[in-house]
Design goal:
Elements (H helix, E strand, L loop, with lengths): L3 E4 L2 E3 L5 E7 L8 E7 L6 E7 L4 E3 L7 E6 L4 E6 L8 E8 L6 E2 L3 E5 L2
Parallel strand pairs: 2-11
Antiparallel strand pairs: 1-3, 3-8, 4-5, 4-9, 5-6, 7-8, 9-10, 9-11
């Protein structure tokens, strides 16, 4: 069973930065794509960033220019660098591994709270 473990969440002030990590139990290069998603209470799940293997990295318009996703294949880890954080960024951030044609795998999520 593939396991994804997120870390790095926490409380940060508006304008601050946070770096999330998602460690996978298998090589992330075997997946079609890795992604970061977030969901706040009462809100629909939102795609934050998608890293397509061998392709482009896509971002939600709401985070473009502020968030940057990256990966380290050797460490089987994907990252989400979040800068200039806003209160509306508050959500549970989850990592997803897309095994094309299936539901893929989800991590447990990590809470990010942006508040003064």
């Amino acid at each position: 069973q593939v396991q994804l473990v997120e870390s790095g969440g926490g409380l940060v002030q508006p304008g601050g930065s946070l770096r999330l990590s998602c460690a996978a139990s298998v090589s992330i290069s075997t997946f079609y794509a890795m992604g970061w998603y977030r969901q706040a209470p009462g809100k629909e799940r939102e795609m934050v960033a998608t890293l397509i293997n061998g392709g482009r990295t896509k971002y939600a318009d709401s985070v473009k220019g502020r968030f940057s996703a990256s990966k380290d294949n050797a460490k089987s880890t994907v990252y989400l660098q979040m800068n200039s954080l806003k209160p509306e960024d508050t959500a549970v951030y989850s990592c997803h591994a897309d095994n094309l044609g299936s539901v893929g795998y989800w991590g447990q999520g990590t809470q990010v709270t942006v508040s003064s």
